[in-house]
């Protein structure tokens, strides 16, 4: 089984978010970048398939050279090969078209992408990729078993979960639950050393229009100070929620 | 040319979000000087959509669509868009809508903006405000393609009544077998409880509750408020509550009108997940908990004393305001 894991290079979850150039660009100054958490669950599941059932695992990212440490980390975790599509990932449709070209070229059976990246939160790449490549698609995937070319997937739905049967080729939008957080892997020294020798292929993007443009950013308006209510005066809290906030 | 809106139902009943996206579609239609056509799938009673500005309803009734299927639902909307000569499609932010929208975007060669929180600020260029960086910021996005898909965040636009009568007609899409490559085997869904995605009010608790055996009062408070229950990441990691209740950057986002956090300190990842909620109340013993800086109202106190009081006072309030 050939597996491709799509890796987004995103600011660490604890990052403070600021903008530069008249609020048109994300300020990367002092920001630590990591593998998108939803992708990390998918990468770990791919490692499980590789070790338990036999599979090759490639990772891919659409981005500039600055994303290579993130791809090297994925290689250190155990991926066999990395591919970087040399283009700025500014639009979900554009990214999906780049990834579709990689999938078609590589003949992958299973593509694992995170359900969304934690920077732009578009949540569109996995579904677009499935449709562009003609693969089956399961989003918000929290469980996946493969038997030959058959797959059983569990996805999170509003208020519960749903189990479905499908077949390869398959694209999933994965998330927490695909593996437990305690199963996530930290690269060890041997993995880091081996990752240096593994191939990281840089390829040119295919022609694709950008359908959306992020033109400007804003930060939420600063909040007023919290109104503290005495623990012995809960009537006041109810009064504020009813008469001031008007939410009950 | 109409604005097309997909109005979702659950077990035949239109969801509250359906009326919200209809309200949003009406606003877009007003800006473009056109009408609104809604698509429903296996919904029983759709006439009420007329009260939210819908001019025409395409009612789809099909056994093949009994279970959600992303490709088949997207194909249905694609065919409806072609019939109505649509170039703007409005959807909600439910798990299902967010799953079908990217497929529809490929089918229609459309730019898709998800998590949109306000009416378009301009229709030329078509510009919408959406959340980014998991609610730590907003992003003004221009959609450049001829056809546009807008996913509206829950509770962001609200319900706007636009009295009118909608003309309904049956619509039967062609559904090829090739669309059904994913077949639902079983659904495990809690019925009769408000889900986080649909909730106006969310009651959430953290490690301050000390153990899963203490969640009874959280559920009782949620019952009184008609709220959904949620939890912090450590609580779901410890297995006290299911993953589906984990709210935050790697869990579910919450965009409720009221979010009550009990015994949650307020890590940056948790705050990102709930930033889109309008009013936040924090109950915590630690006055230095970071959540107090992000909250509108706070009670410094022991949850085991404050929450039972709050339940009793809310019951009284509801009895007096029934």
| Sequence of strands across the biggest β-sheet of chain B | 7-11-6-1-4-5-12
**Number of helical regions of chain B:** 8
What Rg of chain A, in angstroms, do the CA atoms define? 21 Å
The helix/strand order of chain B is EEEHEEHEHEEEEEEEEHEHEHEHEH
The radius of gyration over CA of chain B amounts to 21 Å
Q: So how many helices of chain A?
A: 6
Which blocks of ≥5 consecutive residues of chain A have pLDDT under 50? none
For the largest beta-sheet of chain A, the strand count, sense and barrel status come to:
9 strands, mixed
**Outline of chain A:** globular
Mean pLDDT of chain B: 95
**Residues in helices of chain B, as a percent range:** 25-40%
Average predicted local confidence, pLDDT of chain A: 96
The number of distinct β-strands of chain B equals 18
**Residue runs with pLDDT of under 50 for 5 or more positions of chain B:** none
Describe this structure in words.
- Chain A is α/β, with parallel strands linked by helices.
- Chain A has 6 helices and 15 strands.
- In chain A, the strands form 3 sheets. Chain A has a 9-stranded mixed beta sheet with strand order 11-10-9-12-8-1-6-7-13, with helices on both faces.
- The N and C termini of chain A lie far apart (54 Å).
- Chain B is α/β, with parallel strands linked by helices.
- The radius of gyration of chain B is 21 Å and the shape is globular.
- At the A-B interface, α3, α4, β9, β10 and β11 of A face α2, α3, β7, β9 and β10 of B.
């Amino acid at each position: 089984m050939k597996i491709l894991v799509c890796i987004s290079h995103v600011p660490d979850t604890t990052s403070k978010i600021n903008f530069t150039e008249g609020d048109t660009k994300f300020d990367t100054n002092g920001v630590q970048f990591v593998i998108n958490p939803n992708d990390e669950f998918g990468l770990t599941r791919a490692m499980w398939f590789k070790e338990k059932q036999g599979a090759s695992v490639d990772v891919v990212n659409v981005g500039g050279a600055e994303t290579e440490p993130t791809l090297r980390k994925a290689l250190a975790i155990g991926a066999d090969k990395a591919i970087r599509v040399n283009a700025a990932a500014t639009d979900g449709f554009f990214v999906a078209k780049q990834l579709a070209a990689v999938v078609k070229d590589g003949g992958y059976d299973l593509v694992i992408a995170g359900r969304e990246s934690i920077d732009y939160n578009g949540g569109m790449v996995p579904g677009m990729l499935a449709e562009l490549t003609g693969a089956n698609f399961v989003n918000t995937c929290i469980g996946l078993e493969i038997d030959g070319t058959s797959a059983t997937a569990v996805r999170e739905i509003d208020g519960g979960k749903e189990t479905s049967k499908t077949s390869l080729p398959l694209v999933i939008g994965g998330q927490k639950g695909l593996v437990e957080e305690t199963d996530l892997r930290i690269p060890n020294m041997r993995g880091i050393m081996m990752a240096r020798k593994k191939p990281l292929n840089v390829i040119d993007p295919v022609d694709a229009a950008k359908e959306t443009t992020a033109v400007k950013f804003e930060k939420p308006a600063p909040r007023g100070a919290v109104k503290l209510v005495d623990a012995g005066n809960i009537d006041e809290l109810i009064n504020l929620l009813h008469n001031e906030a008007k939410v009950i | 040319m109409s604005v097309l809106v997909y109005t979702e139902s659950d077990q035949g009943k239109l969801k509250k979000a359906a009326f919200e996206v209809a309200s949003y579609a009406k606003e877009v239609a007003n800006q473009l000087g056109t009408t609104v056509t809604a698509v429903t799938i296996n919904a029983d009673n759709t006439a009420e959509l007329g009260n939210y500005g819908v001019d025409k309803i395409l009612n789809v009734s099909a056994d093949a669509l009994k279970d959600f299927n992303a490709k088949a639902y997207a194909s249905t909307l694609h065919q409806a868009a072609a019939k109505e000569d649509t170039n703007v499609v409005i959807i909600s932010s439910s798990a299902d809508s967010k799953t079908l929208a990217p497929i529809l975007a490929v089918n229609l060669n459309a730019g898709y903006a998800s998590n949109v929180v306000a009416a378009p600020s301009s229709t030329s260029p078509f510009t919408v405000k959406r959340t980014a960086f998991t609610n730590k910021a907003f992003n003004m996005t221009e959609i450049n393609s001829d056809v546009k898909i807008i996913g509206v965040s829950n509770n962001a636009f609200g319900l706007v009544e636009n009295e009118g009568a909608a003309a309904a007609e049956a619509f039967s899409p062609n559904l090829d077998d090739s669309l059904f490559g994913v077949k639902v085997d079983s659904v495990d869904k809690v019925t009769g409880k408000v889900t986080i995605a649909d909730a106006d009010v969310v009651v959430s608790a953290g490690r301050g509750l000390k153990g899963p055996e203490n969640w009874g009062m959280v559920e009782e408070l949620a019952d009184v408020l008609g709220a959904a229950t949620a939890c912090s990441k450590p609580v779901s990691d410890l297995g006290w509550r299911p993953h589906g209740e984990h709210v935050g950057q790697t869990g579910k986002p919450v965009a409720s009108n009221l979010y009550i956090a009990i015994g949650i300190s307020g890590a940056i990842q948790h705050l990102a997940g709930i930033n889109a909620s309008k009013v936040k109340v924090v109950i915590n013993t630690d006055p230095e908990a970071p959540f107090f800086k992000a909250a509108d109202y706070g009670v410094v106190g022991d949850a085991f004393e404050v929450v039972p009081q709050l339940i009793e006072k809310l019951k009284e309030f509801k009895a007096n305001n029934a």
